[in-house]
Amino acid sequence: MIKRVISSKELSELPKSGVEAQKIRALLEAYGTDYDFCRFYSAEGLIIARFYDEFVISTFGETDFDELSEFLNFGGFSKLFCAEEAGKMLSEKLKINHKRLNLMRFSGALSEAPEQISELSLFEAYDILKTSFKIEFEPWYLDMSHRIRHGISKFYGYNGSVLCVQHDLCGEALLSQIATIPEMRNKGNASRLITAVCRKLNESEVFLLCENKLVNFYEKIGFEQFGIKCELSR
Hints:
The chain is of the alpha+beta class. The protein contains 7 helices and 12 strands. The chain has a 12-stranded mixed β-sheet, with helices on both faces. A hairpin with a 2-residue loop joins strand 9 and strand 10 (172-180). The protein is globular, with a radius of gyration of 18 Å.
């Protein structure tokens, strides 16, 4: 039976590794279990985080996908992140499409960090990100400022490029929100920023998620394909 978690102690079975588990752990450390908009659930072989109407699912051992599908249908979701096999099962049961995302791990040489690399404020990061992504400022700002205050996330910038260290937990870091302003693109700035941040995170394995069209770009700067994850959306 899937039940709501009311104490972080109830999540002791959350795996110590894996991007799904670390996404859940980041939400737990940033928000705890007291907010109604950020809920956690558990069952045998399953831990779920719900942030507003977006879900992250970590499956391990035997998971009852029939029960999980009923739970998701009842609760409703706009987006769901999970492992590839779980995504296949859920997309069939929920009759919705899923998008495959490449999990990339950094395995390249660590360059010296350029002198100009610096932490960015949320306003500086947003000014760059909005040139590449459609981001609604207020919900993005409220979430990211909360994560930053709790030491979960950081933004770094270099010559018109930005990236977010979404989290660095249990020896695994996840990069996200990578963008460059139009006039500074195709000059290697994002590549230098990424490798410089990987150097800062040299005590952790560094991962990112990307679509197929970006795999070659990340392979050229030292990433390798490490697996497939799924994003389901309505």
